[in-house]
Amino acid sequence: MAIHLGCHKWSFQRATTRQAAHIIRALGFERMDLGNAPDLHPVEAAANVDETVRYLKAIAAETGLRFIDIFPQLPVPPNHPDPEARAQSRKGLAGWFAIAECVGLEGVTMTPGRYWPGHTAEEDFQRAAEEMRWAVAEAERHGVKARIEPHVSSVTWTPFLAVRMAEEAPGLTLTLDHSHFIFHDIPYEHIALMHPYGSHWHARQAKPGDICCPTEEGQIDFQRIVNDLKAMNYEGTICLEFTPGRWMTSGYVDCVGETLALTTKLREYLG
User: What percent of the chain has a predicted confidence (pLDDT) above 90?
Assistant: First the structure.
């Protein structure tokens, strides 16, 4: 059994995919998660599958990195009330599932969607569940995993909603990041209800009211997480994802420094 460490492109938001890949490789990682980038527009890249595949394979070859997952944040959430908008979302995701298969990614991470004015929470949730059932079937057709990242401001903003979504869309797995739940001061025991559905992990430190903070200030118990993953015989990747900016956080974070700091701790816990 082996648990691997990787790093997310989003730790270097202004960098291109190629630039981020070289930085991540220089930091000692062999695995990387992909996401929106100046050179990887989620709609344009999905509409040009062959070109995108060639580009990503070229970066992998020159850096020696293995790309694990892609989180294409499309401009329209999958549970949009407008059927035509949902159709556009499906078109974009279909392109990414095809890219994932050709590049050798393990899966595609998605947002489950958000709440919409004029609609009940249940309506928004059920609309998302329908789209996730479609995504699971499409992902299986390409031999990759369909996953959502339960996150703040989504229809799966609590562990209970995330578990319910996974159960209502059989085959759907989760990309788990405790920071989205410690933000709301949700206790570990509740967050851990999602663990059995997790097929991929993100890692950064956080605390109540602060979704990304320096490693020494955070309240996420990564030793406990690693112990739980070992007990579940998890064999995937923990991808570090410190992010700059002020989105639901109290200030800017030194992404390089904190990535190195948390990596040291995780390697110690992994043994």
Answer: 96
